[in-house]
Amino acid sequence: MYHSITIGDKNTWDDWKMIPVSRPVVAPPVEKVLSVNVPGRDGTTYLSKSLTGYPVFKAREGSWEFYLDTDEWRGQNLSTPVGTGALEYLSRALAKSNSIPAQTRVRLEDDPAFFYLGRVWVNGGIKQKNGHSVVTFAYSLYPFKFLYDNIQEDWVWDTFGFETDLAVPYCKDIPIKALQSKTFRMPPSEKPSLLQAKWTGGGYVGVTLAKSQTYPYEKAKELGLPAEEVSYCPMMDEGMGKVDIGLIDNDLRYDVYEVRASTTTDAGTLNLYYQPAYL
Asked: Do 262 and 206 meet the contact criterion of CB atoms below 8 Å apart?
């Protein structure tokens, strides 16, 4: 075990020959705490749950340090010194991975059941430790994590709850004709969920998640209400499998979530999946 980290589609050992200085972990989430000292009252009034009724959390933030395998990096046709060349190369690679804001997948070899969403970047310059060049990666990740592989087995008991769970009949096997566009609303979720899409058929489909307040996205935009369009996979084909589309979370600015799907020259079937989050 190399104690590596997969960031986007790159692995810190397999692709970059980086060795962690210490076993990498992701920082635990920290609750956002709001308290007020009220004159004439003992103690402190705790208001953290006053808006939502449940706790909310800060981003998971921290850093990892890696030794560079000098022999491997020297052989990667880098004319500059190993440390300088590595710093430039890794900075470019992570900038490319961060091209979709806050949606880079991060998965630890030591915790393979889960992945995180967020940003990772090179922090500072090259340092020397124990005679080796050291690069530091900083990260800021969504406080909730997600299962890497969905649980496929049936539960012994049906734990479905009508007040909290989701049952969306049009999420599965949605037929879309060639050159057709469809828009439909997804229910909000009290618990943050990652929305994923899978396309079966020919050609390509573009899938967009739009968030808005009270009204459908286009109408909310006209009225000046909070509205945001998040497109994480503008074009996907059958070979891509499940693709992350966006988060349906507990952001109080949004209570309407819409999925828009548009095909190219071929028809096919679209499936949508809610991936629940875990702390």
From this structure: yes
Euclidean distance between CA atoms 99 and 72, whole angstroms? 27
Q: What is the pLDDT of residue 78?
A: 53
Q: What is the model's pTM?
A: 0.84
118: left (phi over 0), alpha (psi -120 to 50) or beta: left
Sheet with strand 227-236: strands edge to edge: 181-186, 256-263, 205-212, 227-236
- Tell me where in the chain the CATH 2.60.120.680 domain(s) lie: 169-278
| Spatial contact of 273 and 195, defined as CB atoms under 8 Å apart | yes
Alpha carbon distance 181, 261 (integer Å): 6
pLDDT at residue 133 greater than cutoff 80 = yes
**Amino acid residing at 277:** A
Q: What fold characterizes domain 5-147? A: Elongation Factor Tu (Ef-tu); domain 3 (2.40.30)
pLDDT per residue as tens digits for the range 52-100: 778 889 999 999 999 998 777 776 545 555 667 788 889 999 998 887 7
Check if CATH label 2.60.120.680 holds for domain 169-278.
yes
Comma-separated ranges of CATH 2.40.30.200 domains in the chain: 5-147
Say if CB 105 and CB 116 are below 8 A apart. yes
Q: How far apart are the first and last CA of the chain?
A: 25
What's phi and psi for 203, nearest 5 deg? 60, -150
Task: Give the rounded percent of residues in the chain with a pLDDT score beyond 90.
Answer: 48
What span, in angstroms and rounded, lies between the C-alpha atoms of 225 and 4? 43
Residue partners of 101: CB distance under 8 A and separation at least 6: 119
Q: Alpha-carbon distance 198 to 9, whole Å?
A: 19
